[in-house]
Design brief:
two-stranded antiparallel ribbon, Arc Repressor Mutant, subunit A, 11% strand, 113 residues, mainly alpha
């Protein structure tokens, strides 16, 4: 039995619920990184980072690739790289939209008086 699309989307969203996981995605936006590079960017301990990657890799958001003898983590695709950017765009537009709505409501109240 296949998983309904809405359920798969919800599970995918839950995968991004921790700030550290979003930080991993941001760290990989410029390309694949070895774990030591992620450690420096994340300011996390090796076991902590390992736990985060253990969640992100099976979800297919982060993949594991080899460059010779070096193991690298990479984003699964360009759309994954857009996730943190889209979240920031949404978060910065929400307050602006709310302020515009508030101004319109105040104008409507003033006009109704």
């Amino acid at each position: 039995m296949s998983v309904p699309l809405y359920q798969a989307e919800a599970e995918f969203s839950r995968t991004l619920r921790q700030a550290a996981w979003t930080r991993v995605l941001e760290s990989l936006q410029d390309g694949p990184e070895p774990v030591r590079g992620l450690l420096a960017a994340m300011e996390a301990g090796p076991s902590n980072l390992s736990q985060h990657l253990a969640i992100l890799r099976p979800s297919s958001i982060v993949t594991w690739v080899r460059d010779g003898s070096i193991a690298l983590d990479a984003l699964a695709g360009a759309d994954v790289a857009d996730l943190p950017r889209a979240a920031r765009r949404i978060l910065t537009e929400l307050p602006a939209g709310r302020m515009e709505l508030l101004a319109e409501l105040r104008e409507a109240e003033a006009a109704a008086r």
